[in-house]
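Course exercise 7: structure representation. Students receive a sequence record and must write out the corresponding structure in token form. The form below is the worked example handed out in class, using Large ribosomal subunit protein uL10 (171 residues). Read each field label carefully; the graders check that inputs and outputs are placed in the correct fields and that the protein name is recorded exactly as given.

STUDENT ID: A-19
EXERCISE PROTEIN: Large ribosomal subunit protein uL10
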Amino acid sequence: MDRAQKEKVVEELGQIFESSGVVVVAHYAGMTVAQMQDLRAKMREVGGSVRVAKNTLAKIALEGKPCASMGQLLTGMTVLTYSEDPVAAAKVADAYAKANDKFVILGGAMGDTALDPAGVKVVAQMPSREELIASIVGCIGAPASNIAGAIGAPASNIAGILKTLEEREAA
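STUDENT ANSWER:
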């Protein structure tokens, strides 16, 4: 790899570190090509990506970034999993690490916060962006349906009482 290619890789990695909601660093020694393809496919499903890069280039790309403390994790055969969604990459990486003992999570970063393996696990347990949006929409919609039910309830109660009185008179 010549100098121009290295500079391009450093620039791409810098963009990843700046724009990603979460970056997870893991060892992948001993994984087969099929297992890596499976990991990439699972990350693509949630809008994330997987990147293998030289540790020295990744450390250069981390210089001056908020997550620069993550550089100490970059030793050995490392892979970066990342996504714009602050939870998606951590969820996939955590689930994949449980299923494959050769994929070992070292830590990561969420914005300017460095994460250890336990921190990645905690982030993975958080609800995703879509789940949060759905719960917020549910909270917003619930009062409206409750109001509609409360408005309609007296009328249905009166109708029930009138029907009961009518049945008594008929009997």
